[in-house]
Amino acid sequence: GINVPGRDSWPLHGINKNDLHIHSYLSRATAKNLDLEHLYLWAQLKGITVVATGDFTHPQWFSDIQSKLEPAEPGLFKLKDELADAVSKEVPAKCRAPVRFLLNVEISSIYKKNGKVRKVHNILHAPDLSIAEKINTRLARIGNIRSDGRPILGLDSKDLLETVLEVSEDAFVVPAHIWTPWFSVFGSKSGFDSLEECFEELTPYIFAAETGLSSDPAMNWRVSKLDGVTLVSNSDAHSPANLGREANLFDTDLSYFAIRDALKNGDPDRFLGTLEFFPEEGKYHFDGHRKCGVRMSPEETARHKGLCPVCGEPVTIGVMYRVDELADRKEGERPVKSHPFTSLLPLTDILSEVLRVGPKSKKVQTHYHQLLNDVGPEFDVLRKASLETIKEAGSPLLAEAIRRMRKQEVQIAPGYDGEFGKIRLFDDQDRDHFTNQQTLFQHPSPKKKTS
Fold first, then answer.
1. Mind listing the pLDDT tens digit for each residue in 324-346?
2. Distances in Å between the alpha carbon of 437 and those of 352, 355, 396, 404?
3. Predicted model pTM
4. Contact call for residues 271 and 213 (beta carbons, < 8 A)
């Protein structure tokens, strides 16, 4: 294989970014190339050290994990050298770094409790293959774990937690995207009003919760019931390129147990906080009715008594409304113990606006990879690289776009009822001012005629 420069000298401790909720190609509605090799590739392009395996209950994916990964630091795995060497050829030199995998899976529980149908997603984490295998054996007795990477089980969330803890006290459970309307512990459609209502006497074993793309920590701080819980953020990626849409910052040794303990204690020196989507960009931030093109703020929804002004049907109640319902603090208040967070836009979204083409277009992809080549992984471009460097590697307009994002100077039309929000960094006047100064990525954009 090729010799990856300095593999032995890579630092394996200190600050690392982790994305601990993803899926595989065996989950519904995911990309065909969502395999371990592409996760290894994209983790480096993004700047992520530890990535979840996702989907370990699926027999085929479990077998992929067994054949392609090998144990590394305690409770973590790495891609086997011969596979890693082949993939490394596609990773720009400035992005090359170690990647570790942590075993986990998202389970969809659909069950009746206290007279209501509940639909809750939870993420299970396991420190080794034998514990994961025992969990699989137990869950296979309860329902079908073969047909989907994220299996649907008629199992109460509390019983799921109990099953996991009976297999091993080293395993742990994190409720997924806790505010999403349809499938979450606080979801407006099928959730609960407190963790206790869901997990009962086992609630103390829930020490972390995932905020989801449509909420950020500040929204969660308004709910004092969550004060003892570490708020985490992950991508829930359904394709490799979506890795790291959200991520967690740790300053720990590289090990499953160090990660778990930092989450458990919420120690601000070890769990440093999260990198977030702008929550307005999430698909369920506001309320609304996609069919009718109706987007409403919580205040408007209350005014319309929860009904769509176009068709009269009930709207999908989003995350903001639900947070308002359960909040006992005002906006802007924060608990004594909380972790910082930074809201970022995906680099492809920024390039899409700068170049005035779709985020998946060839033009955006070309410039994206060129920037990674010249500057380093995506998180470095978004957070660390000097604006001067970005200007040289990209353009003045790109540097200005990133400056605005870092300063949170963004205009957002919030997402609702399954539609992602739309974010803008420039209006046309702004853009003309910049594009007049210098051509954009050496592709001048046509001047708009003003009438």
1. 999 999 999 999 999 999 999 99
2. 20, 15, 8, 18
3. 0.92
4. no
